[in-house]
Specification:
Largest sheet of chain A: 7 strands, mixed
Radius of gyration of chain A: 39 Å
Structural class of chain A: alpha+beta
Strand content of chain A: 15-25%
Oligomer: homopentamer
Number of helices of chain A: 11
Number of strands of chain A: 7
């Protein structure tokens, strides 16, 4: 998948591919500037840049490293810019690294390492075809074009994250039991990574706008300021997303607790009913059992049943009514402590 | 709905509408300054400004973009100011964008894009009628008038949010079951958006007050400082609202938990009563059952019932009293672990 | 209630009331400086200051506005200082605004608007009587006297808030059911308002100490630094109060949950007892019922009761013991899942 | 308890106590410098310093005030340094104030006010005996010695707080019921007070290291930097303690909830068992009751019992088995809603 | 375990061990520079550096102290750099201190105090063998080599912490009962310690990159910037870990509450079933008991059983059906309050 292409941008803004680095250097001597596009390069691909264009070996290391933090480093012959691009792959945030070297008459773009997919070729060629005057402005303008492309492709990832949060929010409100805390946890981490990366990327752009690099001309500052503004906007969106995640967890917790409170309330009613029934009927059942003994019949005598039986029933009804009353009164008193 | 109007403010502060941009440019050459009012303009409406007044194409992009973050950008011929206005529409915060271009002798106001409703026409015309001397002070004074108008209309939105929070607060205290967490979540997001937007707007005003723009004169600084103070005040109010939302969620959670604790307490009392009744009467019922068997009558003998029956009853009462005592003692011991 | 008084402080530090603004201006021309004291003034009272002393109309607006944020603004002829004072009224924090204009030879104090109660008259007259040399130091010293008075009266409000928090803390610990979340919520808001106001007031004092105003002399800086230190101290106290409120809410929640856990534990014991009793006695009662049927007597035969009845009872006791054992074992096993 | 002592440090570093301030001033004129040690002084003790050494009256106020925030103030003749020392008294943090005045040829140390216990005498005298060359370096070195002593005695307080937190942590893990939220709340406040005080003290030291005071020589900066590093270390420890307290509260809450969940689970099992038993045996008991009526015997006829009784028992067993089955099935279905 | 070795790096980059400090100083006079490697040194080992190389006694103290905060201090003859290294030992974070003194022609490395294990010998000797030109660049390059080694060995500790968090996360999701809050609490503290230490280390590197030390040459700045970038990356990872711990606790709490809610729901269903059964069968059992009394048989008469018995059974069925209906209706009504 590794690929390297060398382009010469003529003084008239024409874009022409040349076969080798040596030829590119010769072409640049006659005017215009060079664009070196690397996609998923090996160390061997990048090493020649040290001698030919004064790239620092540490910058080569940075290109090949994973998970670097966005930064801008000035070197005598070039300014090294490292920014991140973002994609959503299978619901998870994928971060990739873009390394850019801006020199007096060259721009080196390195992308696609560690599974990255961003390529600048098509975009730049389309621009060259549509508006050659634009490319003529120099390698710093081309740098802006690549940064702009990175920022444009970030939008999709950020909007996708926003959608995920909104869906999770609706899920929680529909039923707290459908809620997947693992997904929210992953989202939270993704958002923090995004926030930190955007923060550092914005710092990088702020430094370019402050003309920290001698290879950035005055008229292209406006364009970098525009990229900076986009990053600021994304940063604010991510902050809002983070606040929403916090709200989400709180809402989830409150939903669960609320359901638990309602459940407890309903159970309370059931238990009260159960206690009521048991309290009223248990003593009566005992009495009926006692009345069922032969001795009772013997006591009342076989002929007295016309008095004894109704009296017994009335007594039971009275006892039932009294226990019902007592229980009611006990229930209505608030339990202390 | 798109609308564009061109005004010439004469050296005497008189406001006069002119039909076209060309005529306006000619009028300005003779003194005074220009005010260009755009409401919901298309790209075609704004493009002529690039050539005629030196507006940067990126600023035009900013005017047409949605959800931009407030900012101030200096360009050779003008200072571009982007601020936000707020309205409450159907209970939700609506944010709109106002774009202002301040030049040496012109002010361009762009509003109404993406569903915004703020219009400056009426306000400025009223001022021109009431106090022509005011307008004479220059385009920077007119800029202050528009910013002041934006800030004035924000008050309503902020007060409306405060009302919503106070209502939610009363709802939670009245009954936690009436509480709508979704509404609070939306409110939280709105407040964060507002906070971030006010923060950036305040930064913009602070930069104007620090005279970052060459088109702002010394005597109008006092007016911009006043706008800045208003934004600071709104910012603090929003911060207090955010704190109240946090309190609200905590209070809601504590209310729910408190009710749950009370419910558990009441149920506890019911269950204890149930256990008591069951423990006392179940053994007695069993005994009555056993006594109900013919074998018992046979054992005691048919003639001994005068002794056997009372003895049986007394035995039952004794067992009942003992189990009641035992249970009481067991209950009073704190359950370990 | 509106009141205005004009004082001339002679070069010897003597304090003399003069009837009108005109007379005051004439007196000042001869040396010394002017003190203009306004209490709850109307716009008409303040407007003459614009012409006579160069007060900016926007400052007049600030005096009449409500809920302004503390600030310091420099104008050509005066420095406008806006600070807040605090009182506790019916348990709630009342914030009032104090506006001060310091010029080369005048000090204007405005207080009492929107229900404020702070008055400087008595304090200054007492000082003038006790130590005339102090007043001689100039209007900046008098400014310090008024600020010092404001800060002194804040102490009471802050100590009162501290008391409220400590009482709430004891209430929560005594019984979580006595806790009033509404009061805590109000307290929280009051503390945040206080924190923000103190923060801005401290900034104002820091600016005075940095000699941002040309009307403050070197030797009075020490006094303003002292006011600044007091505000810092109050600010830290308010921060500590805020932390205590957070602790309080957490403690309340933990108290409620702890009680709930204890309640659940006690209920658990009751339910286990109930299950035990029911499990042991229900089968026995059934058996006694079955044994109570005539068929049983028929089966065992009327004469076999001496064997059948004890056997029946022993069988019941055995079944009871077995179910008790089984239940114990089941209970001791931890419920899975 | 009030005590004041005056020392003259000779040009050779010798430490000699002199009886009065006047004598001290005379001694200093001949070279060396003065050290004035005050412990719990009254206003009368300190007032003479105003005239004799140019101490500002406001600094005297600061010495006598309680709970001042650490600070450094420059005056024409001296630099006033206010720092805090800490002790643990009866488990609670006690904060005390140390006031230091550094002049060209004098150092005033004030401690012991409002119940403070720090005394510098012994330490300095020991140093003077051991290493006279050290004292010779000037009053700024002596200032460092006192600050170093304060910082050294803080260690004990900080380590004691760490111990308290670790004990609380073990308590919570052993049993959440032993946990004392009041103690944690007090600890939290103590830690916040400590944090704020250390923050301001560190600022004071940072200012000394930046040579804000003209009375601090270059070679003693290294020593103040060392004090600053110690304060930074304590500050970080306090931050970690604060984080641990937050963890502790969360852990406590989670422990309580976890126990509650386990308790609910166990109760659930009990209730299911109870329901099972009741559901199976209640209908059977009813049947046995119905079977116990004489009418049943009449229906089956006295001689048919050999068929009727076993059939009745088999029917009961069948009904019992069926209700058991039905209940099992009902239980295994997840309760909806 | 204490060990000290002296090396002379010749002008050609050759590394040669010399037996004593004196010999080393003589060798350096002839060009090249010195490297003094101390591992777990005693005070006696370090004291000679004060006289020989101008090391400040306070720096010696710092080397021997425990738990110092990373810092950089400039002294006339050397720059003192203190950083931390990290290891995971038995699942807990171990922090160790590395002290470095960079002079014009020497580098002193001190490590291994208080149980530290980092040694630089092997690494430097390997480098000297592989690339002698590298060492030739001076002591500042050697400083970079040691810092780089420290940072490289940190990676392992950080990755190990990440693993622990991910395992804990999976544990919580698998079953909240397996979760060990104590481990999380320890992790949290470790992460905070790490965060603070990395923060200060990064500050140290930032100061080196800003050329605060006169002993750092321009061309080695790039290398220190690289170390700085690594620290920034670790810092961000630690921040993300901290956020994940917070998520973890929230998730744990929500899991526990969710289980509790489900448990409550299931119990609710059981209790409702129990209440239903009891309500339906208790009255019937009572009736059967009453029907079991001889008096009933007497009332209905021995010959009327053909009517009385079915009528009795039908009546019981009717009563059962009615109580079932009534209970259903009561249950379906939402319990108020």
């Amino acid at each position: 998948m590794s690929e390297k292409r060398f382009f010469h941008v003529g003084p008239d803004g024409s874009l022409r591919q040349v076969p080798s680095l040596d030829e590119l250097l010769r072409a640049v001597e006659g005017g215009g500037y060079a664009w070196l596009e690397f996609f998923d390069p090996s160390r061997e691909d990048l090493n020649p840049l040290v001698g030919a264009l004064g790239v620092h070996p540490l910058s080569i290391e940075d290109c090949l490293d994973e998970n670097s933090v966005p930064k801008i480093d000035d070197f005598p012959t070039n300014t090294f810019v490292l920014v991140n691009g973002y994609r959503i792959l299978d619901g998870a945030l994928k971060q990739e690294e873009i390394d850019l070297f801006l020199g007096k008459n060259f721009l080196i773009t390195v992308s696609g390492c560690h599974g990255g997919t961003l390529r600048f070729g098509e975009r730049v060629e389309k621009l060259a075809a549509k508006d050659p005057a634009a490319l003529r402005q120099g390698p710093d303008y081309l740098l802006h074009v690549t940064l702009d492309y990175v920022v444009d492709s970030d939008v999709e990832a950020i909007e996708s994250l926003q959608d995920v949060i909104e869906t999770a929010e609706e899920d929680v409100l529909a039923s707290p039991y459908n809620f997947d805390p693992k997904a929210v946890m992953r989202l939270r981490r993704d958002l923090l990574i995004l926030r930190k990366s955007l923060f550092h990327s914005r710092e990088v752009l702020a430094k370019i706008c402050r003309k920290d690099s001698p290879f950035v001309s005055d008229h292209s500052i406006y364009h970098f300021r525009d990229v900076h503004d986009h990053l600021t906007k994304y940063f604010e969106i991510v902050e809002i997303c983070r606040e929403m995640i916090t709200s989400l967890m709180e809402m989830y917790l409150s939903q669960v607790n609320n359901r638990m409170a309602k459940s407890a309330n309903r159970m309370n009613a059931s238990v009260r009913r159960l206690t009521m029934i048991t309290t009223v009927f248990m003593p009566l059942t005992l009495l009926a059992g006692i009345g069922g003994m032969s001795e009772w019949s013997m006591m009342t005598g076989p002929s007295n049943w016309k008095v004894a039986y109704p009296a017994f029933l009335i007594g039971m009804a009275a006892i039932g009514a009294i226990s019902y009353r007592l229980l009611r009164r006990a229930e209505s008193r608030k339990p202390g402590k």
